[in-house]
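INTERNAL AUDIT FORM
Audit reference: QA-55
Scope: verify that the stored structure record matches its stored sequence.
Auditor: D.O.
Record contents follow.
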Amino acid sequence: ELMKLPYIGCGVVPSAISMNKMMLHEFAETVGVKSTPSMVVSSSSKNSHQVHEFVEKNKFPLFVKPNEAGSSKGISKVNSESELLRAIDEASQFDTKVILQKEVVGIEIGCSVLGNDDLVLGALDQINLVDGFFDYEEKYQLLTAKIQVPAQLGISLAETIKEQAINLYRSLDCKGLARIDFFLTTEGDILLNEINTMPGFTDHSRFPMMMREIGLSYEDIIEQLIELAGESDDK
C-alpha cells in the first residue's frame, strides 16, 4: 500500500485487527458479537495471579494460541496446569503475546463474504471432526475432518450467523472478501472464532467452495474481486 500498488481485498486496518485475536474479540464485543472468554499473557507472566484466576473461573480444558499467527500453528488444547505452562512456551515461539481461551463445545461454522458495499454471502460451511480440533494437519490434509457445504442448520439460525458476519464485515470496513468463522455451541450460542481477511483461495479451499454452492465459479469470483478492487477508494 505504501508503494501505491493495487491489490485485492481488505485494507491495512481490518487486516491488522483481524490478525490480532484479542483485539478482534474485543472489537467484536463492541458491535454485539460474542466470543468465548479470553485473556492475553506473555511467557514471563504465565504464572501470574491473573492466569490462575482465569483458569479457576473457566476451568480446563483451555486453548492456548499465539495471539498473532495463522493456520493453527502453535495452538494447544490443555487439560492441566503443567500442560498450560508448556503450551504457553510453545505458543511463545510464534508470538510474544499468547491468548488463552475457554474451550467451546460445539461445531465450527464458516461464512464467506464477497463485496465492498453490496455484499454476496456464500453458503455456510460446517467443520465435522472425529476428535481433537481443526489443527494444522487437519486444515491442510483433512485426515479425519470433513467440510460440509451447506452447513446443516435451520434457516433462522443460518440467517442469524450471516447477519453477524455482515455486521463484523461492515463494522471493520472490510473490502473484497473475507471468511468469518464462528462456533455454534451445543447450547445454541453463536461465538466468533476468527476473521480471515485473505482466506485460502485454491479452487478447493473453503471460500470458493461456499461460493460455488450459490452458483459462483472460481473464475467468477476472481473476476468480481478484480472489479471490486478497482471500485475501492484506497486501492
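Auditor finding: record pair retrieved intact. The longest strand covers residues 106-114.
Action required: none
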